[in-house]
Design brief:
This is F-box domain-containing protein. The longest helix has 17 residues. The radius of gyration is 27 Å and the shape is globular. With about 425 residues, the protein is an alpha/beta fold. It has a domain of about 160 residues: Leucine-rich repeat, LRR (right-handed beta-alpha superhelix), CATH 3.80.10. The relative contact order is 0.04. The protein has 17 helices and 15 strands.
């Protein structure tokens, strides 16, 4: 029996499952086996289309226009380039191809305002997710697609919206996630059931934060996760969230300014002290900054953060995780125990955080006994007994070396670090 005949005898469901995994090059070869296998493989080859140049885009658009099977297979489209000039011929072939994509579920055209302008009045009947530029064309586009469940807008405003100070409400009754500027959030979120939002705050409209969260509270929308991206530390933002969305479970404040503003940051942390007890369901709190912290992890930062996270944990029994500007994620591993972990994959930082934890727990006389019990669970009772005994006898902590192994962190006592 030939290879083609053998494959033809396999149930189409099994062929479809097999075709999920090979790279595109192998799938193209697989297409030559027979017509049945070809039809299955084409569905996976064209399921997600990523276009990174005008030349590739034109070739792809021509295929989609001429081959209805390929066009119907496309579920996700990413156009990741910005044409140097938006020629009429390119715009026509782009629009013609998009009109063939009746099964398209997600689109990302955030790289080019010109491409978005060209397609902004095309209805994509099954579209659920989109990532688009922030231009005046968003209004007709969103009105054409009321069934969106996810909306992401480039936070940098195009010239066409630079003078906008408000927008009329846009109804998206199926929206679950939103990412974009606060002016769009104010027009979309209060009229949607969104639960996860990321809001980019323009410093020109600092007064919008109370208005947005008051509107959300009046609408009954139940936000569970709020991310705030801003360039200034705004205590009023935190106050507005606390007053209007007290049941939020995950809250992020990310300052992306290149300027280090330690006094403003301290004032913001003081505002957290005053409000965190009112966020009765808060489980995750991230307060991070893009500036002011050295590349190397500083143990003194861990000391300060440890004091802060313990203070917040005492006030908020629901709090389970905190992320700070040092990029340390503090996890509540026991009711009274906070443990520092990495937010990014870095073995040196992981070992430094563990060293800090061991040193702090062994040498402190003020921490609850739960910390020593947690360290025994992590490092072993023999390790803790040896380090604790030497510290009590000599008044200094014995030297110890940490190394990463497949089974975890290895600790060697008495070796030079």
């Amino acid at each position: 029996m030939s290879k083609s005949a053998s494959l033809a005898s396999i149930p189409i469901e099994l062929i479809d499952e097999i075709a999920r995994y090979p790279p595109h090059g192998d799938l193209l070869a697989f297409c030559r086996v027979n017509r049945l296998v070809n039809s299955v493989c084409l569905r996976w080859i064209y399921r997600t289309v990523v276009l990174e140049s005008s030349v590739l885009a034109v070739h792809c658009f021509r295929t989609l226009i001429s081959n209805i099977q390929c066009a119907q297979a496309v579920r996700n489209l990413i156009i990741d380039f910005c044409p140097e000039t938006m020629l009429n011929a390119f715009s026509r072939i782009l629009r013609a191809a998009l009109r063939k994509l009746n099964s398209l579920e997600s689109i990302d055209v955030s790289a080019s305002t010109d491409i978005f302008w060209a397609i902004s009045n095309i209805h994509l009947p099954r579209l659920r997710l989109c990532c688009i530029p922030f231009t005046s064309d968003i209004v007709p586009f969103l009105q054409l697609h009321p069934k969106l469940s996810g909306l992401a807008l480039d936070p940098v405003p195009h010239n066409s919206v630079m003078q906008w100070t408000s927008m009329d409400p846009i109804l998206l009754p199926d929206l679950e996630t939103f990412s974009g500027p606060e002016i769009v959030a104010l027009s979309v979120i209060p009229w949607s059931p969104a639960t996860h939002v990321a809001i980019f705050w323009d410093p020109r409209f600092r007064e919008n934060s109370p208005a947005l969260f008051e509107a959300i509270a009046r609408s009954g929308t139940k936000l569970t996760e709020i991310q705030n991206i801003l360039v200034t530390w705004e205590p009023s933002l935190l106050t507005a969230i606390t007053d209007n969305i007290p049941d939020v479970t995950s809250l992020t404040v990310r300052n992306v300014s290149p300027l280090h503003m330690p006094a403003d940051m301290e004032a913001f942390f003081s505002c957290v002290d005053a409000t965190i007890g009112s966020l009765r369901s808060l489980q995750v709190l991230s307060v991070v900054s893009m500036s002011g912290f050295p590349d190397a992890l500083d143990p003194q930062d861990l000391d300060r953060e440890f004091q802060t996270v313990r203070r917040w944990g005492d006030v908020s029994s629901s709090l389970r995780c905190c992320v700070f500007p040092s990029e340390t994620k503090w996890i509540r591993i026991r009711p009274q125990v906070w443990y520092p972990t990495n937010t990014i994959d870095s073995t040196p930082d992981m070992l430094m955080r563990f060293r800090w934890f061991v040193t702090t727990v062994i040498t402190s006389t003020a921490l609850p006994a739960e910390y020593l019990a947690a360290l025994e669970l992590i490092g072993g009772k023999d390790l803790v007994a040896a380090l604790k005994g030497s510290f009590e006898r000599e008044g200094v902590l014995s030297e110890f070396v940490l190394s990463e192994r497949s089974t975890g962190i290895s600790v060697t006592i008495g070796a030079s670090g």
